[in-house]
Write a structure and sequence with these properties.
about 100 residues, alpha+beta, Elongation Factor Tu (Ef-tu), domain 3, 6-stranded antiparallel β-barrel, 6 strands
Amino acid sequence: MQLQVQGEIWYWRGPAPFHFVTVPLAESEMIHEIASVVTYGWGMIPAKVTLGATTVTTALWPKDGGYIVPIKKALQDRAGVTVDDVVELTLDIDA
């Protein structure tokens, strides 16, 4: 499954600082339909995420009935984006 999503990079101050993009509701529902087949546990969904010309392997995190995409600092630096920027991501999930 390949999805195109758009969202704002936001900061979550947890045990370690992370930056995320929230997957919109419609796309989260599509992911939820295949989640039981692709999750490796705890609701985590392995995915390839493309931002600009860079693709990384990561996992979508479940949050509030939807999913969030972690955006590592190295990926932000390569794409020249930061917190509060709106970005377009391609999510590739093997179902």
